[in-house]
Sequence to fold (463 residues):
Amino acid sequence: MPLSRVKEAETTFPILLVEDDVNLAAAVADFLQDKGFLVHKAGTCARAREILDHKSVHVAMVDRKLPDGEGTLVADYISARGFKTKMILVTAYGMDQHLSESLKKGAFDFLQKPFDLETLLKRVCNAGRLYRLEFSSQVQHGFLKSAYRMVGKSPEIERIRHVIHHVAPTDTTVLVAGETGTGKELIARNIHLDSHRSQQQFISVNCASIPETLFESEFFGYRRGAFTGATRDKTGYFEMAASGTLHLDEIGEMPLEFQAKLLRVLEGGTFIKLGGEDESRVDVRLIASTNKDLEQEVERGRFRRDLFYRIAVFTIHVPPLRERKEDIPLLAAHLWSGLTQRMGMKESALPVPPEVLFNQPWTGNVRELRNFLERQLLYLRMGRPAELDVDAGSEGRILKEPLEGLTSLEEHTRNYVIEVLARLDYNKAQTARVLGIGLTTLKRWLKQWDVRVERRLNNQETG
Fold:
């Protein structure tokens, strides 16, 4: 199939590209994006699992050799989670028994390096066709509803479910307000899934992560030649979410200058790409979320009053976890089940007494609870879980000092990090990727622990 004859309808589905070779990943992603695909990139198995948990992916192209394990682990995860994603294994080693077994288990196809782009496109389109045949939009909708269901039985959660049921079928702009980690994006997704736009894209954008100078190009896109380095047209977030839902997370972080431009789009439904001349019309439902008091931000001159009234047509207030403690056991069980599957571990009972979870303040809300449980799972993998003081007089707080004869959690973390460093030939960049932390965080830890790292095989230090 010549590249020029590939139908546009076949190149509009989301792809996960898992490749640790940065240059190859960039080249393949650019090629696929030019053909109209929405490409999510990952460099490790862990990051791939995270994307699969949070994004709808039709086809996954996965390199067989990754920093934190065999690419076949991603195939196993797709199967274990019941995802319908079609997987193409990319290998430089040709067919062997291990690869053959992966294909038998459910991997759709394999591609041998080096490969040409026409062959790549054929394999991806074939996998996408099979996905569409097997996974109709109706089935997909039911699957997503299950994947993003709201867990809890408190009056507060029941109230939010009731509100979503009534507001979702409309095109009303909704503002979701609540502390960090309360699940504002989850609520936005549920509004989308219950709406008439549910078969279209849900695009979530964290406004705090976009540099101030890039807001216009990220949201509106640009034409080739619009500025130095613009070698091809770029699709902006509004176009990506056409006929669907655009979720603006942390909208309070949006620069005042761009707030005026956003207001014009919301009022008129049109925008002009950077470097373009013609207006583009777009039909998008907007859902915004914030952890700030936007009314106070308006009074302080940090947020436009007219934009506030435009996005706060209907506001959903999400209570913090400490105000709905009856949901904690259900949330903990749900999160623990998902984490054990993600890490490829056999599901086990939660190793934390309920009263400990119940008595924590959880200032970081559900996100903090999830991070805490993930740490417990990591310690289980290391052979020793975190020690907890469940005595009533301790108010259920996690011990910061080790019990007599036991090593502190910080010491466990230090030893584990150093062991991973050693196994990866003291390569800081690879170690940070495998641990799932930023390189800056790893360097800060090593400096704090007074650990000096030198590459053993050569004198160059990566990262």
